[in-house]
Amino acid sequence: MPLAMGAVLLVAGLGLAVRSGFRTTRPLAAAPRTTTTTPPATAASAVTVPLDPNLPRMALHQMTATEGAVAVAFLPRQPGQFLVATLGGSVLRVADGATPVPVADIAAELANGTEQGLLDIAVTPDGTRAAFSFTDRTSALRVDLVPVTADGGLDMVHRRNVFSLAKQHPEHNGGHVVFDGENALWLGTGDGGGLDAGAGDVARNPASLLGKFLHLDLRTGAATVVHRGLRNPWRWSIDPASQTLWIGDVGGDHYEEIDRVPLRAAGFDFGWNRREGRHPLLSRPAAAGTTDPVWEYPHVDRCAVVGGVVYRGRAMPALRGRYLFGDNCGTDVRVLRTDAAGVPVAEASVVPASGVVSFATDPAGEVYVISLRYGVFRLDPA
């Protein structure tokens, strides 16, 4: 059933503190039908215009009320079932209408300071293995691989580590993982955090694995730098229809950015820490050859982008091809509007939601929204 949400949750994982004060008074289907437009060259000003009237009204339907939910991975061999990872370290299997079943718990292995914990989970296309990313007791970012059992459980006895990245600070881990076939992973890493995060330009330094978009070969253990210049790519996604990579890179003090590049291209530099979005950062000199974000927005009632997904489902045909995203300080799920050339020109609120930390798509292309406080929801026509 729809759950009413109307407050804001700032959570670990995005460089923020927790703020309480929730209320559940606004129906999810009653999203303001307005759009924010931003001039292509800057995000310093915005204007409200009517939302595309062809878009359907939408509602969020709760699939599980798992508190602390941070990521979802669907199980190809168990139709209708998915795994939910919690920031505190537990993994649960969820079937429609059934009580979630615990399948793993690594809480004792986690560093649990600011932005730390179990960060993400993914499952191979054939459903036989899962990968999860987390910060261990040394604050290192780790990715482990584990077999998925026939009933959708995790065989933790045969778990093995496939990636480890030492870090000095707890912040800016990234950690989002997606399988590339059965024997490779895509991974986004943050710049490592600390005072004046990214000091030393590590995110742009090709010799460092911090602040990068990586490709991991699970057979050889090799980690290849694909893109650089990222601050904290907390959530990103691949649109399989267009073979496009969308990255939500959490900004610093002023701007949030969304990047879009061809999936199989390589060598893009997104500019951190020489700039934030399209804007020079502090007094640092401009960096040549950097790639502009496809969209940015200022810190006005929002502060930490949660990269989303391109909708490819069947329940809402008018929404197909549109990019949905959120903000951890925001109170809604939003959609990008594009012009005839596919260039984003505006964003619009489509449904209220609080404490958004992630998005996922099921095998049919329908979108799920994950809230740290309220659990997992499917985005449906209202």
Commentary on this structure:
The radius of gyration is 19 Å and the shape is globular. The chain has 382 residues and is mostly beta strands. It has strands spanning 34-37, 47-50, 58-64, 69-74, 81-86, 90-95, 101-105, 118-123, 129-135, 141-147, 160-165, 174-179, 184-189, 213-217, 223-227, 235-239, 244-249, 255-262, 275-276, 279-280, 295-298, 305-310, 323-327, 332-338, 344-352, 356-361, 367-371, 375-381. A six-stranded antiparallel β-sheet has the order 2-1-25-24-23-22, with no helix packed on it. Helix content is 0%, strand content 41%. The protein starts with 33 loop residues before the first strand and ends with a strand.
Compose a concise summary of this entry.
It is built from no helices and 28 strands.
Question: What layout of secondary structure does this protein have?
Answer:
Elements: E1 34-37, E2 47-50, E3 58-64, E4 69-74, E5 81-86, E6 90-95, E7 101-105, E8 118-123, E9 129-135, E10 141-147, E11 160-165, E12 174-179, E13 184-189, E14 213-217, E15 223-227, E16 235-239, E17 244-249, E18 255-262, E19 275-276, E20 279-280, E21 295-298, E22 305-310, E23 323-327, E24 332-338, E25 344-352, E26 356-361, E27 367-371, E28 375-381
Antiparallel strand pairs: 1-2, 1-25, 3-28, 4-5, 5-6, 6-7, 8-9, 9-10, 10-11, 12-13, 13-14, 14-15, 16-17, 17-18, 18-21, 19-20, 22-23, 23-24, 24-25, 26-27, 27-28
